[in-house]
Design goal:
With about 280 residues, the chain is α+β, with helices and mostly antiparallel strands. The chain has two domains: about 1-60, no CATH class; about 75-275, Fumarylacetoacetate hydrolase, domain 2 (Alpha-Beta Complex). The protein has helices at about 20-25, 35, 40-50, 80-85, 155-160, 220-225, and strands at about 1-5, 10-15, 15-20, 55, 65, 75, 95-100, 105, 110, 120, 125-130, 145-150, 155, 180-185, 195-200, 205-210, 235-240, 260-265, 270-275. The strands form three sheets. Strands 1, 2, 3, 4, 5, 6, 7, 8, 11, 12, 14 and 17 form a twelve-stranded mixed β-sheet that branches. Strand 18 and strand 19 (about 270-275) form a beta hairpin. The protein starts with a strand and ends with a strand. Belongs to the FAH family. GO terms for molecular function: hydrolase activity; metal ion binding. One of its GO terms (biological process) is small molecule metabolic process.
């Protein structure tokens, strides 16, 4: 199942066709993503037999964030060994968690106003939480995930790294700094949900690429470790980490500039596109 939002309403997606969930379930499921994902098992069972005769067409520019109002947005630092090395750190023994504030979350095709400083890119595969839960064991970790989507953990490095110790969250939460989409894809759609290829390009240059099999802490492990402390709620997001190739670790450093376009792709999901002004 592939799901997303159009006009802030939950829809199922098949190519360029969309099926409004509330309308075509005769009100059984709400248009609100969080409320519908709270009944994720029921939703997927209904979706498997949904009648697509009333589907409508859409353009990619019309899509919103697959989970537009997450109550919690978790992010993982240094979850790929090459990125830890380029940043000058040892690979962590425990996940290094921070948050992006939910107000930064946007849809897949956006225009982002760059703040002053050192704005940077970080492609990430993002897990969208379904029914959620507290103290979820790792063997049930994937069961808590409604789907995977593409994300960018855009980061303004001057704010992110100011102070001792540095604090991450503000520098990663400027307006538009959490683009996600174009859709969320349930894990049964992938040949191997633990091994997805991804890349991002800045203009014609491929600046990052990797596979989720290279993560230090896999998605199910992250779900277990986070939910051991914080109950995961329907629609929550987990930005699972970025590989090597970010701008501030280049020689010389390279930062996002007005007029540039960043395209981020994950196999089996699609792409998001940000233009900077």
């Amino acid at each position: 199942m592939r799901f997303g939002t159009l006009a802030d309403r939950l829809v199922l997606i098949d190519g360029d066709r969309a099926l409004d969930v509330e309308e075509h379930s005769d009100g059984r499921f709400p248009s609100d993503v969080n409320a519908a994902l709270a009944r994720f098992g029921e939703l997927t069972a209904w979706a498997a037999g949904a009648d697509w005769s009333g589907a409508t067409s859409f353009t990619p520019e019309q899509l919103g964030a697959p989970s537009p109002r997450p109550r919690q947005v978790f992010a993982v630092a240094l979850n790929y060994r090459p990125h830890a090395a380029e940043a000058g750190y040892q690979a962590p023994d425990e996940p290094l968690l921070f948050t992006k504030f939910p107000s930064c979350v946007t849809g897949p095709i956006t225009e982002v106003t760059l703040p002053p400083g050192k704005p940077d890119w970080e492609i990430e595969v993002v897990a969208v939480i379904g029914a959620g839960g507290h103290r979820i064991p790792r063997e049930r970790g994937w069961d808590a995930v409604a789907g995977l989507t593409v994300g960018q953990d855009l980061s303004e490095r001057a704010v992110q790294l100011q102070g001792r110790p540095a604090q991450f969250s503000l520098g990663k939460s400027f307006p538009g700094f959490g683009p996600t989409g174009p859709v969320a894809v349930t894990t049964d759609e992938f040949a191997d949900r633990d091994d997805l290829a991804f890349e991002c390009r800045l203009g014609d240059e491929r600046v990052q690429h990797g596979r989720t099999s290279e993560m230090i802490f896999a998605v199910d492990d992250l779900v277990a470790r986070i939910s051991a402390v914080c109950p995961l709620l329907p629609g929550d997001l987990i930005f699972t980490g970025t590989p090597a190739g970010v701008g501030n670790r280049r020689e010389p450093p390279r930062y996002l500039q007005p007029g540039e376009v960043l395209v981020s792709r994950v196999d089996g999901i699609g792409e998001i596109r940000q233009r900077f002004v």
